[in-house]
Amino acid sequence: MDLNHYREEDKVLLAVDCIIFGFDKHHLRILLIKRNFEPESGKWSLIGGFMKREEDLDQAAVRVLEALTGLRDIYMEQLQAYSKVDRDPGERTISVAYYALIDVDSHQFDGPRLETAQWFKLSEAPDLIFDHNDMVEKAVARLRRRALKRPIGFELLPEKFTMRQLQTLYESILDKKLDKRNFVNKINSLDVLIKLDEKDMTVARKGAYLYTFDKEKYDRKVAEEGFNFKI
Amino acid sequence: MDLNHYREEDKVLLAVDCIIFGFDKHHLRILLIKRNFEPESGKWSLIGGFMKREEDLDQAAVRVLEALTGLRDIYMEQLQAYSKVDRDPGERTISVAYYALIDVDSHQFDGPRLETAQWFKLSEAPDLIFDHNDMVEKAVARLRRRALKRPIGFELLPEKFTMRQLQTLYESILDKKLDKRNFVNKINSLDVLIKLDEKDMTVARKGAYLYTFDKEKYDRKVAEEGFNFKI
DNA sequence: TCAAAAGTGTTCTGTTTACACCCATGG
DNA sequence: CCATGGGTGTAAACAGAACACTTTTGA
After folding, report:
1. Does the pLDDT value for residue A110 go beyond 80?
2. pTM over 0.70
3. What is residue B160's predicted lDDT score, i.e. its pLDDT?
4. If both were cysteines, with which of A34, A210, B132, B196 could A160 make a disulfide (CB 3.0 to 4.6 Å apart)?
5. Could you list the residue range(s) of the whole structural domain that residue B93 is in?
6. Dist. CA A59–CA B84, nearest whole Å
7. ω before B151 within 30° of 0 (cis)?
């Protein structure tokens, strides 16, 4: 059997596509670009590009994201490979999806790219090319699972945030209303937030306490394989 | 930027590697083959091979598994892609890992392949080539997560099985002893097993009732997004 | 003085855990 | 008749869900 012999003609192009989730204090968003090249020029798609021979997929994802949006040092995680034979009508390509979570407000992308890259509310995102809708759906499912397993927010929230912002983030990820008291009790019982003396006076006349994550405690607890964050 | 232009020299070989879990009524096992080709000839590895241009990854995984073991109609699920630049010392290849669960006893592989393919107890598996150890570790983690989320066993157990066999399966997946009464109560509360009138008289003087999965109920419940199977 | 959002605890219910004895049978 | 593994229930601890009023202060 020639299973184990390289056949030059079986080589394929490997692409990466990035599902970038953002949160802007009110809504969960996703970053898309309008394609200005064929195929499917003019349509919306995920940020993507080809892996080069001298890099691995993780590196390709980081490079492609920066090239198209100027966003730097974004940590991305691999989701899975998409390989249907006819997924890209142009050329046989296999694409590996990556996803990341970032705080919209502290990651402005630079001017010239603004026209092509744009944040959409998750619920209002346009139809995407190829199998990109599937990729997004899968990424959302992963985000939800992850949110239920441990408190996320490090990446999606600014350094300092109010309890309500964290709750709103969870509500938009899980797409359901949560009980304020139960949420606060749950978060506090996890003991990974530091309550600051500072208040955000813009959100209410009374003001709202600001919190930060206690990264050390958080990492320790995640490592100890605990948490289980059911809401 | 040439992000969006195909470069012939960036094409790569895409491989699949299969982590096949089996259960033989006592132990969780994994299927490995001894390589009789370079590189790393003589060492143990996962079952793997290259994707052809005219098929997708899922199809490649099924084909490769059958070619090397004679195992047919095995449902496999994609884990993730492995793409370190130097992962295969021979040629630049990216490998996508797949995993499957099967019942060892009802899936004998055919004679001539017996010498290369072999079931190992998970705890006694040899060191593997390339990044295959990582793949296995990841697959085990996935298997555990899945076992905790819903009752698995359809695939890993024979059609009819005893409660104790199901418990042993869970104990070997989770690698810890479970309480017999709590386990039975939990399983029964899920209401997806059918208790047969038949007993397996080989396991104890008293005999042990045989069960089958109620596939319809099971599928309905999984679809209703419920279950949460904490043990 | 009032509108708007923040902050805060308790009770109830369901789930998980811990735990020990009798049963049926083949040898 | 006894050794072996199968089969069964209950109580205590814990986690999750439901639920309403007071506080602060800027306009």
Report:
1. no
2. yes
3. 94
4. A210
5. 4-149
6. 10
7. no
